[in-house]
Write a structure and sequence with these properties.
2 copies of one chain form a homodimer. Chain A has 9 helices and no strands. By secondary structure, the first copy, chain A, is an all-alpha fold. Chains A, B: Keywords: DNA-binding, Repressor, Transcription, Transcription regulation.
């Protein structure tokens, strides 16, 4: 029996994620079955189930990719005790959506299209609801940290709760994700010009 | 043959909308069939098809309800040449979502749950995509009018495009709609406190 390398396993896993992302994007999360994903992947059922036992596990894997991309954005923003403005953080997130999520190198797909479908699925599937909620709570926490530092630097009144500011920052990014897909004329530049005019502390 | 009153027709139409909204909310837009809606309504197929020939027509009818609610909000904001701040308009929209859309008196359902499902459907259904796009272009136009007046009153730099500000305002509201459903702890008060801290021109 040949020795299976970690690289091989990671490549196989990425193939399955790419196949499932293609099916979700074409037919929607709800209408896609594990059988459809297996067929799209060109692998055996056993090979696919070795990595993912359900659609929900696939969603978790894709969510992890999206979160790790977001973490890179925030690591860059918050390096060496920096205190970027909320407007700068929203700008970095919106540009991260376009540069990283909209053309993911692992799944070869637009993760934001998948996200919008998963939002709908979360309303009738408690397991998906929980996983999506965890992702957004984590992103909101990163946003709140930006607001906390901005407040510590004296740019927000002391009675403002950073968590609440983080909620609104995340909302601006979610609104961009949605409008970019539903209203084709929405560019990151136009959206950020509008957001920047609304938010103080921009360049 | 009895004379059919307008009131009777409107009541019948609302009954069908309520039945379809219940099915969409329970099973998702994609998985709901016209047959399921007919069964839920307790009416004959002929009676239902007299009002709505497809799921897409039902979506249009629900979108009209949502738009007319939004129009009430903006009519109130912009009455007598008023120039409310973008923060005030976002606040009115967010409160309108909670007070009107989340407990619609015609369909007896939470229209925002339906909206989130329709977003996903719009990505694979061109007709739904077009109708949803029209709704958001209209809402964005209302938001842009707020920004235009706010700019005319000297509160926004002259080189800012009101349409772009309107886009970001709408994004903030869409983010609230989503977080309210996916992260239960998101209240309108908390969200608006965060948004208000970010946006100048609030009370």
């Amino acid at each position: 029996m040949p020795r299976v390398t970690e690289e091989y396993l990671a490549g196989r896993r990425a193939e399955i994620l790419a196949a499932s992302a293609r099916r979700f994007a074409a037919d929607g999360f709800h209408a896609t079955s594990m059988a459809g994903i297996i067929s799209e992947s060109g692998l055996s059922a056993g090979a696919v189930y070795r990595y993912f036992r359900s659609k929900e596990e696939l969603i978790s894997a894709v969510a992890e990719i999206a979160l790790s991309k977001a973490k890179e954005v925030f690591d860059g923003l918050l390096v060496d005790g920096a205190s970027p403005s909320p407007a700068e953080a929203v700008s970095a997130m919106v540009r991260g959506v376009v540069a990283r999520a909209a053309d993911d190198t692992i799944t070869k797909t637009d993760l934001t299209r998948l996200a919008v479908q998963v939002w709908g699925e979360a309303l009738s599937n408690p397991e998906v609801h929980q996983r999506v909620g965890d992702v957004y709570r984590s992103l909101r926490g990163h946003c709140a940290e930006v607001a906390r530092r901005w407040q510590a630097a004296g740019h927000l009144p002391p009675d403002v709760l950073p968590e609440q500011v983080g909620t609104a920052m995340l909302g601006l990014v979610q609104g961009f994700v949605l409008q970019r897909l539903l209203l084709e004329e929405t560019s990151a530049d136009a959206y950020l010009a509008g957001a920047t005019a609304l938010l103080p502390g921009s360049d």
